[in-house]
Amino acid sequence: MASIQTIFQYPSSSTTTTLFTSSLSIFSIPTLPSYISVKSTFTCFSSSSSSLSSSSITDRAEIRLGLPSKGRMASETLELLKDCQLSVRQVNPRQYVAEIPQLSNLEVWFQRPKDIVRKLLSGDLDLGIMGLDTLSEFGQGDEDLILVHDALDYGDCHLSIAIPKYGIFENINSLSELAQMPQWTKEKPLRVATSFNYLGPKFMKEKGFEHVTFSTADGALEAAPAMGIADAIVDLVSSGTTLRENNLKEIEGGIILESQAVLVASKKSLIQREGVLDTTHEILERLEAHLRAAGQFTVTANMRGGSAEEVAERILSQPSLSGLQGPTVSPVFCKRDGKATSEYYAIVICVPKKALYKSVQQLRAIGGSGVLISPLTYIFDEQTPRWRDILLTLGL
């Protein structure tokens, strides 16, 4: 039997909220095998003054975008939007609502990432940015959550199992070895501390663990094994420094999810709410254009040649000079004996930062001169593959 401590809430006639705590015993957790138990604390909050009826949600005219309210994820999200010419204007830093002047009829709401997911599902938000780990944990695969952009290129981390480096775990280096340890029995299961009470048990079930129990913990999970309250933890890892400093280690096969920042939309909002689809399209195009241009440079040079085709052949013979779709070659005209003639051609290519110097060397080797380099801000495609996938998902 699994013991779950639950905080129940009953609405009263006033705007106050009445809470009491009770302990329940149940035989199993839904969707999990009976040998996996989860000890959790669930909290519900609401008041009659802030609750929205389904009709008020339906009638809402404004488009709402949820952004992380604090921490590194919040600052990096604002920086990305600024780079996409979508700066968030917040009159008062203490307010939870702001705007993006370039997007009409859009409200920005600063929320905790997990609340962004919940409010996308409830209809209180139309779009949101959060980590893929948060989306997966609190969205739990709900079909109403549409992944608009799955790689915003910040917030990189992974959800992983970690165990002590010492004691009975000293020679355990893989998930299969952890599962086969004879210490884990029905009476004494593997104890895992985590705040991911959906992804953790789901992963362990899929990996065939027979005897495991989960306990909820928020913050300082790394201390749980040393305190003797858990055998292992499931937590987010970025550099791994905190694990190492607490004598913990990741193990082979123990990564549950690779995560970074993502843009998510409510499928219902995209289909039913006026303007949401167009706004999503514009945000996606700006993000795609900026992210594709990141680390790319325009290289311009002059090159002597008999024809544009001959110059293009020379350029394409070099592996680092092909550009996005090939070089642009155009004649450079000068006046000689009263006539416009062309002995040089201007070439323009797009080069990634890591290949920049090599590309310049190759250009000069085939006769390029006057090489100019400038960073790119945006690269717009005819239509992004992600947008085509969204339209296909929506049946449009």
From TrEMBL:
Protein transport recorded as keyword: no
Location(s) in or outside the cell: Plastid, Chloroplast
Positions of the Histidine biosynthesis HisG C-terminal domain: 293-377
Positions of the ATP phosphoribosyltransferase catalytic domain: 112-288
Gene3D superfamilies cross-referenced by the UniProt entry: 3.30.70.120, Periplasmic binding protein-like II
Alphabetized CDD domains for the sequence: PBP2_HisGL3
InterPro entries: ATP_PRibTrfase_cat, ATP_PRibTrfase_CS, ATP_PRibTrfase_HisG, HisG_C, N-reg_PII-like_a/b, N-reg_PII/ATP_PRibTrfase_C
Predominant place of localization: plastid
Catalytic activity: 1-(5-phospho-beta-D-ribosyl)-ATP + diphosphate = 5-phospho-alpha-D-ribose 1-diphosphate + ATP
Pfam families xrefs: HisG, HisG_C
Enzyme Commission code(s) on record: 2.4.2.17
Gene Ontology CC annotations of this record: chloroplast
GO molecular function, one term: ATP phosphoribosyltransferase activity
Keywords: Amino-acid biosynthesis, Chloroplast, Glycosyltransferase, Histidine biosynthesis, Plastid, Transferase, Transit peptide
Biological pathway: Amino-acid biosynthesis; L-histidine biosynthesis; L-histidine from 5-phospho-alpha-D-ribose 1-diphosphate: step 1/9
GO biological process, alphabetically ordered: L-histidine biosynthetic process
Family per record: Belongs to the ATP phosphoribosyltransferase family. Long subfamily.
Protein name (record): ATP phosphoribosyltransferase
The organism of origin for this protein: Aquilegia coerulea (Rocky mountain columbine)
